[in-house]
Amino acid sequence: MDIKQIQDLIRFVSKSGVNEVSIEQQDFKITIKTNQPQNTVVTTNIPVAENTGTAVTMPSITVTTPVVAAPVEDTSKYIIIKSPMIGTFYRSAAPEKPLFVNIGDEIKSGQVLCIIEAMKLFNEIEAEVSGRIVKVLVDNASPVEYDQPLFLVEPA
User: Fold this and answer.
1) CA distance linking residue 65 with residue 8, whole number of Å
2) Tens digits of per-residue pLDDT, 18-34?
3) Cα separations in angstroms, 18 against 28, 35, 38, 61
4) 41 phi and psi, to 5 degrees?
5) Is 153 strand, coil or helix?
6) Which residue of 10, 55, 68, 108 could cross-link 47, Cys pair, CB 3.0 to 4.6 Å?
7) pLDDT band at 90 (very low <50, low <70, confident <90, very high)
């Protein structure tokens, strides 16, 4: 498991409401606990190769990350554009291509806002309203869930 997979797992566990998840493989163990107030605890055993070529398991490493509360923002005047499916969110058609929309851009109904890749199919997500992009709520190349907010739009 690489660090990106671990971060994705932490995000998934925190959103799902589960108190604790443990995964064990041959020489890898990870436990994520969310029942502690304001902290996420990740414990891992990481195999390390010595000069002799044999694998040795190091003692557990515990990382505690405090949860910082974001300031409350009034979003009632904005329209939330949500993901119509589960997949991976992309802000452009390819890494070298320009972004479909940026914060502050005026959009029209039917305009492509992003792509969500699901099972190797790239689905263009179009705006259902006209307005101005106020906020992009998802990082590029991040997994998204069904009905997850993607953009905040100030209606025209």
Assistant:
1) 15
2) 777 777 777 777 777 76
3) 21, 8, 15, 22
4) -110, 130
5) strand
6) 55
7) very high
The structure tokens listed for 5 are 């997979």
- pTM, full prediction: 0.53
One-letter amino acid identity for 51? N
Structure tokens at 97: 């291509």
Q: Which two tokens stand for residue 77?
A: 């005047």
Q: Which amino acid is at 2?
A: D
Give the closest residue to 151 by CA, choosing from 95, 103, 90, 92.
Answer: 103
- pLDDT tens-digit series, residues 102-145: 999 999 999 999 999 998 899 999 999 999 999 999 999 999 99
Identify the pLDDT of residue 62. Answer: 54
Query: Terminal CA-to-CA distance of the chain, rounded, Å?
Result: 45
| Helices (runs of H) and strands (runs of E) counted in the chain | 1, 14
| Overall size of the chain counted in residues | 156
For 76, the token pair is: 């009632």
Query: What are the structural domain ranges in the chain?
Result: 3-66, 79-155
Q: Which CATH number fits domain 79-155: 1.10.760.10, 3.40.50.150, 2.40.50.100, 3.40.50.720?
A: 2.40.50.100
Q: What is the mean pLDDT of residues 92-100?
A: 93
